[in-house]
Structures are given as C-alpha cells and as structure tokens.
Amino acid sequence: MLVDLSQAVGSYLQDVFIAKFQWWVLLGYIAQAMFTMRFVVQWIASERARASVIPVAFWFFSIGGGVVLLIYALYRRDPVFIAGQALGLLVYIRNLYFILLTGRQASAKN
C-alpha cells in the first residue's frame, strides 16, 4: 500500500512538473518567485528593525510579480486567478502611489 502511494505521488509529480511542462509554466514560476520575494524583503526588513516594516521594495515586487502572474492567468483563462491578480495590482499600485506622494511632499517641505 505504501509502495502504491509512493508510485502514485511520483507519477503525479512527474506528470505535473515534467510531462506537462511548457514555457508558460516557466513564466508562471518566474512570476511566483518575484511575488514571493516581497515576503522575503519584508521579513528581512522587519527582522533588522525588530518591528513590522513594509519597505518600498515590497510594493515593487508585488507589482512586478502581480503583473507577470496576471499575464499567466490571462493565458490560463482562469477567471478566479485573473480577478485576484487584477484587484491585487490596484492595491499595490495605490500603496506605492501613497508612498511616492508622501516622499514628494516631505521633500517639498525641506
């Protein structure tokens, strides 16, 4: 029984990650890696500050990963994935806008 389960898992992984590999899948992996980097950047910044910090790079990685994942979702024709990425992009862009606007206002006062 354990051997059957092991073979089934191995067969599934081989089918998903090797047999059905396409360049679109590689693009999806790249996009997901970009999107994941935002968490790494945020984690490192928070560890250094010993407090919760969201650096500007977090929003740039969010936008970059979100755009590429949206392209991948459009290719896959997945309405849930498309809606999630499109709405997320609006939030990321808006947050970056506020950060840039605040920076401009601060530099204008100096």
Structural write-up:
This protein is mainly alpha-helical and 110 residues long. Helices cover 88% and strands 0% of the residues. It has four helices and no strands. The mean pLDDT is 86.
Which helices and strands appear, and what pairs or packs with what?
Layout: H1 2-19, H2 23-49, H3 56-76, H4 79-109
Provide a concise account of the structure shown.
It contains four helices and no strands. It is mostly helical and 110 residues long.
Quick one: overall form? Answer: elongated
Please identify the structural class as seen in this structure.
Answer: mainly alpha
Number of strands: 0
How large, in whole angstroms, is the Cα Rg? 19 Å
The helical percent reads over 70%
Low-confidence stretches: none
Instruction: Kindly estimate the percentage of residues that lie in beta strands according to DSSP.
Output: under 5%
* Average pLDDT: 86
The helix count comes to 4
Major sheet characteristics: none
Helix and strand pattern: HHHH
Distance linking N and C termini: 72 Å
Keywords:
110 residues; mainly alpha; elongated
